[in-house]
Specification:
The protein is of the alpha/beta class. The protein has one domain: 3-Layer(aba) Sandwich (Rossmann fold). About 45% of the residues lie in helices and about 10% in strands. It has 11 helices and 6 strands. Strand 1, helix 1 and strand 2 form a beta-alpha-beta unit.
């Protein structure tokens, strides 16, 4: 059983990975709060609320020690859930997450643009921003079109709110409370997660395994979903 917290780009972004995972697991993905209703932001919520949403979802589904896979923003939710509920998961796998989001010009510009400028829903120049998520080098046209289409399904106000939450995250204080075995995967060309942030994440977790994915960037699970599934199945089979 694998539970996947939804992504900022909408749940459809998970489709290729979910198909590959379903060959080995029963896969359940759920949408994050506010994804299809930007008016939910009228009642402000934070990461603690999203962690509680995951806890309620697992309880409501009657899942006993499931495996959880958290990707990017969902990975931060998974880490905090494992810290708050140390014995509720069989395993946790994450990709595209570090202990904290360090300040850099790239992240500063992304935050300013999302916050202060209304963006068109489809613009060739703006869509190049998503190329950074896939890593350097040309990517198949169909992959780029798939990413841009699904990322624009999320309202800009919701993306801004989540980006602001991520900028404030510092996972280091909660890592020592994690008792769940954790697999940390990182794309070789992930420009958003530094090596230092990855090191701090891995050093803070008691039972951790780190895997570097040779291709892809922050959205490595889209570029090589089979490799992500391979690493996760290898990791979780030790608990069968």
């Amino acid at each position: 059983m694998v539970v996947i917290p939804g992504l900022a780009g909408g749940i459809d972004l998970l489709t290729p990975l979910a198909r590959s995972l379903s060959c080995h697991y029963r896969v359940i993905a759920y949408q994050l709060r506010g994804e299809e209703d930007c008016f939910a932001l009228r009642r402000r919520f934070g990461m603690a609320d999203l962690v509680e949403d995951l806890a309620e979802f697992i309880e409501w589904m009657g899942l006993e020690q499931p495996d959880v896979l958290g990707l990017s923003f969902g990975g931060a939710i998974g880490i905090q859930y494992a810290s708050r509920f140390p014995y509720r998961l069989r395993s946790l796998s994450v990709q595209g997450v570090g202990a904290r989001l360090e300040k850099s010009l790239l992240r500063l510009i992304a935050g300013m643009v999302l916050k202060d400028y209304p963006l068109p829903t489809d613009n060739a120049f703006v869509n190049q921003f998503f190329q950074m998520f896939l890593g350097r080098g040309p990517k198949p046209r169909e992959v780029m079109e798939f990413v841009t289409k699904n990322c624009w399904q999320t309202d800009q106000s919701v993306m801004t709110h989540r980006f602001q939450m991520v900028r404030k995250i510092d996972l280091r204080p909660c890592l020592k409370s994690i008792r769940t075995p954790v697999l940390v995967m990182s794309g070789q060309r992930d420009v958003f997660i530094s090596n230092q942030s990855l090191l701090e994440l891995c050093e803070g977790i008691n039972d951790v395994q780190f895997v570097r994915l040779p291709e892809g960037g922050h959205l490595a699970f889209l570029v090589q979903p089979q490799r992500v599934v391979q690493e996760m199945t290898r990791f979780t089979h030790r608990f069968d």
